[in-house]
Write a structure and sequence with these properties.
Shape: globular
Helix content: 25-40%
Length: 349
């Protein structure tokens, strides 16, 4: 545990009080959680900018929130969908933290508990356990929230569940072929990542290797995948430039929050907008065009729009007047185009 107060030599600084919610007890990862995050944020701890205190939420151990400035929620072998008292309590606490404005960083299980607590959905990954290094494409919101100028972001992963539906108002930080929601920004104070940035430490190497061997014993991953993960874990520290930049971005979030107002806003469309060329003919200044799946809605051919009549598009004689629209549907799922427009962009008829 990091002692509270300002370390010697850091006079004049007030350390950010970070509560680390430890969500796992396992030997491979859980028991190393405090050391993993303290080593990961060591530069800020040593400089007196941050202090980290762990809380065992399995034992319903939560801090006095009036004495906390920011929160980190760790990974876990548990599923957020497990029926456990500590998980139910954690969901309640996350709701309160989101409303309070305190900065929250969720990692892996922490990413998923944020989604569940705030109205999203989490389900099993269709391909089972996902492990090892993974790159994802960063969205415009991801560039801003993570202060990340590059088109991709690389983290190490270890998960069998994933966010299948983001909470209302959540913005995606990026996606990969293996995971549609690699990170989220909710408001300006809640940020979550599916990957494990804390694996980019010396302690992270044996943690990954021990997890790989455990998953192999349980039949979650193959011998080939185990050997590949163990070998790639040794390369964690060779990626020092990327590790350092990611740590700086997450440190800045915990210390300062998300910078400024967004300069771009995400848009989803369907129909002719599924073609990038067609979308650009309507929105020449769009950026970050990609395809995504919209869950919880279905396409319908109805709801004639007034513009169809004012522009003479509808044919009243043949009754050709329906337009493609969408309706809420819990079982719905269809392909959409997603892209970003300048913030404040206005739509006119």
């Amino acid at each position: 545990m990091i002692a509270s107060g300002v370390p010697a030599g850091a006079a004049g600084l007030v350390a950010l009080r970070v509560a680390l919610l430890q969500c796992d007890h396992g030997v491979c990862y859980g028991q190393r959680v405090p050391a993993l995050f303290q080593q990961y944020f060591k530069p800020s701890i040593d400089s007196g900018r941050m202090e980290i205190k762990p809380y065992d939420v399995h034992k319903l151990e939560f801090p006095d929130w009036s004495q906390v400035d920011a929160v980190i929620i760790s990974g876990s072998a548990a599923s957020v969908n497990d029926s456990e008292e500590w998980i139910d309590r954690l969901c309640q606490e996350v709701k309160g933290l989101s409303d309070s404005g305190k900065r929250v960083l969720g990692v892996c299980f922490g990413h998923q508990i944020v989604a569940k607590a705030l109205g999203g959905q989490v389900g099993a990954h269709p391909k089972g356990m996902q492990v090892g290094p993974r790159e994802f494409r960063v969205s415009a919101e991801g560039e801003r929230a993570l202060r990340w100028p590059n088109p991709t972001y690389r983290l190490r992963v270890s998960h069998s569940d994933m966010v299948t539906k983001m909470p209302p108002g959540a913005l995606s930080l990026g996606l990969s072929p293996e995971c549609a929601v690699e990170g989220m920004l909710i408001g300006s104070n809640v940020l979550s990542l599916q990957g494990h940035p804390e694996f980019g430490t010396e302690i992270g190497i044996p943690s990954q290797q021990d997890l790989a061997k455990l998953f192999k014993e349980k039949g979650f991953i193959s011998t080939e995948k185990t050997e590949s993960w163990c070998k790639s874990a040794e390369d964690s520290l060779l990626e020092s430039e990327g590790v350092d930049r990611i740590r700086e971005s997450l440190t800045s979030f915990l210390l300062e929050g998300v910078p400024g107002k967004p300069d771009r806003q995400p848009i989803m469309g369907f129909g002719s907008l599924l073609s990038e060329a067609s979308a650009r003919s309507t929105f020449p200044n769009l950026a970050n065009f990609r395809l995504a799946r919209l869950r919880g809605y279905k396409r319908v051919m109805q709801h004639p729009a007034a513009v169809f009549f004012t522009r003479g598009i509808s044919n009243l004689v043949t009754k050709e007047m329906a337009s493609l629209s969408i309706e809420p549907d819990p079982e719905g799922d269809f392909l959409v185009a997603a892209f970003d427009l300048p913030a404040g962009f206005g739509f006119g008829v």
